[in-house]
Structure formats: C-alpha cells, structure tokens
Amino acid sequence: MRLLVVEDEPDLANALARGLRRDGHAVDIALTSIDADIRLRSATYDLVCLDWNLPDGSGLTLCRDLVSGDLPTLEGERPMILMLTARDDIEDRVEGLDSGADDYLVKPFAFTELSARVRALLRRDDDVSPVIEVGELRLDPARFEASRNDDAVELTAKEFSLLHYFMAHAGEVLSQEHLLEHVWDEMADPFTNVVRVTVSNLRKRLGEPQLISTVPGRGYRLAD
Questions:
Q1: Residues 92-137 pLDDT 10s
Q2: Domain with 138 in it
C-alpha cells in the first residue's frame, strides 16, 4: 500500500517512514501543508498519516478538504486518514474525528501502535480480514508471513507488499502503471522495468504452477 506521512518534524517523519517501509508499505513524506496538497493531487495514496499542526496551515483543514472533495485526488477517491497530534483533550479528539479523520492517535505514541492502527485502517478500506486467503495463498500482514498450500514463502518487503496488493485485488487486471502508483513510492523511476522484474521474482518465489498471469497489453492478474 502507498502511504503519505504529513509531519513537519523531519526526524519524526523519516523515522515513521522507515518503520512503515519495514512493514512493506511505499511511503512518501510531506513536511508542509502545501507539499501535502501537491502530493495528494499528483499521486494516489491508500492512507495519510496527518499531523494536526503544520507550519503553513492546519492538518485539520487538509483533512476537511480531502473529505469534502475540495482537494481533488488523482483517482477521485480519498485515502484513509490517521490524525497524529499532541492534542489529547476529548474536545480535540471529537473535532478531529468529526472533521472526517478515520482514526486519531495522540503523541507521543509507540510505533507498534501506529503500525497496528495503519493495518486496521487498511483492512477496513479493503474490507478484508487480518489474514487474507486467495486459493492456495495465505497472507498475514501483521506477522509478515506468506504461504502457499501451507508451505512458507520467503519474500522481500517489496514482494510482500506487491503480493498483498494482488491478493486484495484478486481477479482484477492491474496495469504496470497502477501497480507503480500503489505499491511503490515517489523514488521509483517510472521509466524502469522495476514492476516487471518484481513481478517476475514474485512468481519464482510462489512456485509452479504460475498464479500471476500476464494479460497482453493490459497488465497482470492474480487468479481468484
């Protein structure tokens, strides 16, 4: 999944990004409201970790604009929103949730809790259980475990993230551009063959018979 961390403290933003990438997500960072606005208009995100207090505006305003549609997103669907803030009064929590945030986490927090809340929100967005099963495949995002016919499959973080996305969209034809948009972050070069190579490696890891087929001229599909 592709996430955006909107946080004005660079050290904290980078620490959150590193942890979320270890969880298998593609992560971009925005340090200001303007930067976040630009990124949200130009890329597709599944979830935004949004700080309330930003140097050039309020994360609350950004949240409201996303929910109302005043801030149009690339594919027309808004991402899930996890509000991050030091404001711990009940009135602030109510205001944050009423503004459209899907969850609210008070600073300081343990990264393990943030990670769990991100997983919970993404499950809610995809309407899937914590453990995903598609045919012979089983994926447990919380434990970072994958298996085929009960045999463990060792995957890199990016291969795991790619398989997670395929399984959440089993049966759908996913173009290289779509996969690049959702599974990779802004550092990925769209002119490279990174998607093709990663899909090829994932196929080898999953073994025979092949479960991910190529749809000529359109992309890839995981059999459902």
A1: 888 888 889 999 999 889 999 999 999 889 877 554 457 889 999 9
A2: 132-222
